[in-house]
Amino acid sequence: MTRRQALARTGALGAGIAFTGALSELFAGTAAAQSGLGHSGGYGPLIPDPNGLLDLPKGFRYQVLSREGDPLRSGEGQVPSNHDGMSAFPGRHGSARLVHLVRNHENRHNGRIPVPTVKGLTYDPMGKGGCTALTLDARGKVLSERVALAGTAVNCAGGPTPWGTWLTCEETEDQAGTNGYTKDHGFVFEVDPTNPHRSGAVPLTAMGRFQHEAIAVDPHRGIVYETEDAFEKPFGLFYRFLPDKPKGGLGSLRAGGHLQAMRVPGVPDLSSVQDPGACFERIEWVDVPDPLAAQTPIRHQDFGPHGITHAQKLEGCYWGGRCVYFVSSFARSADGSAADHYGQIWRYDPDHHTLTLVIVFGPATDIQLPGESPDNICLAPTGGLMVCEDGNGTQHIYGVTRQGHVYAMARNAQAITSAATSAGGTPTAPEWGEFAGVTFSPDGDTMYVNCYTPGTTFAVTGPWRRT
Q: pTM for this structure?
C-alpha cells in the first residue's frame, strides 16, 4: 500500500504525517517500533462539514463556544483574536457541575482584536495579548465569558497547575520601549479560572524572561518545567524551575525560586538524535546566569565550558505518570539545526535522570500538502495522545493510540486564504489556521480545541471509547 492509499483510508489524505516511535509505559502497552499510518484505533474517515467549519468522524458533533469579534458575554468588549493554548478546570455552583476554560490569545503589538484592558487584570496597557475565561454548565452551555488577564504579549501556550490555576506564557523577549511596550515582556503569569481578580496581573519573574512556550508541573516535587520556542539559532532550551515554596497554591510561585537549563552530555542539539527509544543517562541541570536576561537572552548566555543543549521549536509540554514530556515541532538543517525532522516527543524521567526520545514524526511524505509539526498535545481520556498540527496546508488534530497508530480526529475546514494563481501561472495552495489548546473536560466526555485563525473555540462530543 502506498502512503497516499494509507492516508486516504484513515481520512487523513492531504495531511501526511508519517509516524514512527517506541511507545513508553505512558500508553500502557509494550514498547514496540511502529511505522506508517495505521487505520486501527481511529474513529473512521472525516466527514466534510456542510457548514465549512470542522470535519469530524461519523457520530461526532461540535458546538462553537466562541468566535473572535463576537461580543464578550461580560460586556467588556470583543472576543480577542489568535486563540491559542487552553485548559479545562472543574467547578461547582451549588449542586451544579461547571467547567472553567482559560484560553490564551497570542496577540502581538499589531494583533487584530486585542484583549480588552480591565482594571486589576492589566499588566501593560500597551500589550494586546492575554487570556479570557469561559464558564460552561453541565450541558455545555456558556454561562459567562470574561477577561482573565490583559496587557501581556504573545500568550502562546502554558499549562495547568495541580492546585487548579493556569500558567500562561509570553512567547517574546521584547523589553520596555520595544513596539510601544511600557514594561518588559517574556514572563509567565498565573491565572485563577474561577476568579481572575484573585491572581491579578503579576509576572513570575523568577521563572525567567525568554520566549516561553509551555509548562508542566511535577505534582510530587512542585518543580515547573518550561519550553522555549526561539525562532533563530541558537535555538531554545528546556528549563526547570525549583520554587522556594514547592507545595504550591495560588500565588506560591511569586515567592521565587531557582531557574536551571537542561544539558544532555555530548548532545548540543536534540535534532541530531533520530532513533526512537534512544535514552540518555545522567542528565545535568545548569544554573541560568541571568534569568531576567537584562542584557543577553538566556540561550546566548555563558553556561560554562561544556555548553548547553539546544533544540529548534520546543513547544508542547505536559506531565504524565512520573515523567515530563515535551515536543520539538520540527528541525531544519537549513535553519541551523544539526539534522532535519518533522516532530519529536521527548520524555524526561526525574527519578532516574534520563531523557528518552519517545516519538518521531517524519520523514517527508509524497503528497502535495505534507503535514508536519506537532504542537500542542494532551493525554486523551481513551489513552494515548491528541496532537495539534501546526504546519502547511490543511490542519488536523491527530490521535495517537497506545499501540502506535495515528489517525485523523478533526480537520479545520475554515480556509483563511483561498487557492490563487501566482504571477507565473502556477496554482498556489489555500491555507488553513492551525489547531491549538486541545484539552478535555474533567469527565472526559468533551474535547475542547481552538482554531487559531479565525479564532474559534469548539466543544466536540461523541462516542469516545473508554479504556
A: 0.88
